[in-house]
Design brief:
The protein is an alpha/beta fold and 290 residues long. It has one domain: Rossmann fold (3-Layer(aba) Sandwich), CATH 3.40.50.150. It is 35% helix and 21% strand. The chain contains eleven helices and eight strands. Strands 1, 2, 3, 4, 5, 6, 7 and 8 form an eight-stranded mixed β-sheet that branches. Strand 2, helix 5 and strand 3 form a beta-alpha-beta unit. The relative contact order is 0.16.
Length: 290
């Protein structure tokens, strides 16, 4: 039953992000709004990449909630993995940091996103950025490969977060580290927000409690876990009106419940070599840069 539920949630998320990938317009990770301009909505979640080295506007679909690459301590020659790479935005920023001697691998389970990312990489002529189709809770990547793992507003969409954290740990080299931006909660969301499928695919309802999220990271074996940045998220009233009564909106916006974007850093201990694991998910042979 649990596996069926997880697959249903994945199908909801995949369908929504496939539509975003083929729309060619930025769409908020918390959904669109009829009364508020679209760019105002998605800016509620995302941080501004303008001026960031390696930034490609065509690869920025407005789906992030932070700037993990800014905090990821990426060095020239590193191998970086981006979980939920979308159209390639964070991969291209990471490529600037790793330089010509490094490598960036983006993983996404939405074929339309992979196609869009590969097209962007081909246009730029990048030969050290690769995009692989696969689930981030079953990464198509060998163990002990990456120096750095990044992700931007993706882990909150995955039902089985401990499994994703375990995969992050597995693919990192001993002594490697991650920097992940994600949505977390403090307090309990109203039931209508928590249960609605659109809100799940929109980053909020699938979010963990902040304390649980950090405990899951440490439970996967990571050390030196620290929050690098915290940003409160305020959902617009017109969006809340889709789910809540006026009284419920008032209680939600004035109560102790909070929605936050956090960027978290953690290390894989230098003495922890993960067991070798075969890559079970086939890698497409038509990768733009393989």
């Amino acid at each position: 039953m649990q596996n069926l539920l997880e697959e249903n949630v994945k199908a909801i998320v995949q369908d929504r992000y496939a539509k975003i990938a083929t729309n060619d317009q930025p769409i908020s990770c918390c959904g669109t709004s009829k009364t508020v301009p679209q760019n105002k909505i998605y800016n509620i979640m995302m941080d501004d990449y303008t001026g960031t080295d390696g930034y490609l506007a065509e690869a920025d679909l407005g789906l992030g909630c932070g700037l993990p690459t800014q905090f990821a301590q990426i060095n020239p020659g590193n191998t970086v993995i981006d979980l939920g790479s979308g159209a390639g935005n964070d991969c291209f920023v990471a490529r600037h940091e790793v330089g010509p001697t490094g490598k960036v691998i983006g993983v996404d389970f939405t074929p339309a996103m992979i196609q869009k990312a590969r097209a962007n990489a081909e246009k730029l002529g990048f030969n050290n950025v690769e995009f692989r189709e696969g689930d981030i809770d079953n990464l198509p990547i060998s163990s002990n490969l990456a120096d750095v793992v990044v992700s931007n507003c993706v882990l909150n969409l995955v039902p089985n977060k401990p499994k994703v954290m375990g995969e992050m740990f597995r693919v990192l080299k001993p002594g490697g580290h991650f920097s992940v931006s994600d949505i977390v909660l403090v307090g309990k969301l109203p039931a209508a927000l928590q249960q609605d499928a659109e809100m799940y695919a929109g980053c909020v309802a699938g979010a963990s409690q902040k304390e649980d999220y950090l405990n899951t990271i440490e439970g996967a074996g990571f050390t030196d876990v620290v929050i690098q940045k915290t940003k409160p998220i305020s959902l617009p009233t017109d969006l809340l009106q889709k789910y809540l009564s006026e009284d419920e909106i008032a209680a939600f916006t004035t109560g102790s419940t909070g929605i936050f974007s956090i960027t978290v850093f953690g290390k894989k201990p230098a003495d922890r070599m993960s067991p070798a694991q075969p890559v079970l998910t086939p890698i497409s042979q038509n990768s733009c840069c393989s």
